[in-house]
Amino acid sequence: MRSAVLPLLYLLVACGDADSKAPAAPTAIAAHNPCNQQIFEDDRFTVCDAGGGRIELAAAARNETPVRRFADLESKLGARAGRVAFAMNAGMYGEDGRPIGLAIVEGRQVRAINRRKGGGNFHLMPNGVFQVRGDGRSEIVTTADWKPSPDTRIATQSGPMLVIGGKLHPAFDHDGSSRHIRNGVGIAPDGRPLFVISEDPVSLGKFARFFRDRLKCRDALFFDGAVSALWDPANHRRDVTVPLGPILVAFKPGTFRPEASKPGPEGRATP
After folding, report:
1. HSE, side-chain direction, 13 A CA sphere, residue 243
2. Which of 22, 52, 74, 213 could form a disulfide linkage to 81, CB 3.0–4.6 angstroms apart?
3. How far apart are CA 47 and CA 28, in angstroms?
4. So where are the chain's domains?
5. What is the pTM of this model?
6. pLDDT tens for residues 135-147?
């Protein structure tokens, strides 16, 4: 769930192709397509691999307008939208679309770390943070272990953790009765971040096992359930749900070009 204040409403529509959610052949991630389906314990999961491409976060501060839909993200990206490999909602948020946990966008903290206790999935401790360092290295750490660093380029806080050091979250049943479309991220053994959305409603236990047992992730973080969405241009898929919160967008490897610098207020170029 996004947070306790949000409705458990999920409406999924594929843009352009009514069969875009139909199962593809369960193969390993293809080199030409960042997102592909796999079968695990009779359920379908789509796995997206950034393949070393740049990952960015869209998350709004209090004085900024949130991006709530993939169509709005596409418009905001402008010419860069053609270089998108995929995008996925990424982190718990409030009714206004702003993150309720840590959010760092290009080194700028737009929301502080949230260590408060409470109800709902976000507060099912341990929760955690997905972050990307300045050198492109991706990490998942528990909220308790997270430390601020000037080297953190982007970060988003969510919860609960799915896998912690190779072990499943201790609060999960093997296959509980709560079933939702779910999404999250794990770190592969070679350090690559792997982003996953289930195509069938699954329990938290099964979702976590997919990361640990199929993808061999020692650490994985839950993003959302019932409001999970994916933009996958190569497969002509752009999910439409209730309005989203923070969104991670991965660009195709080798296609990132920084935006042209503009003079700052003192005539200096700004990054």
Report:
1. 13
2. 74
3. 9
4. 35-255
5. 0.83
6. 999 999 999 999 9
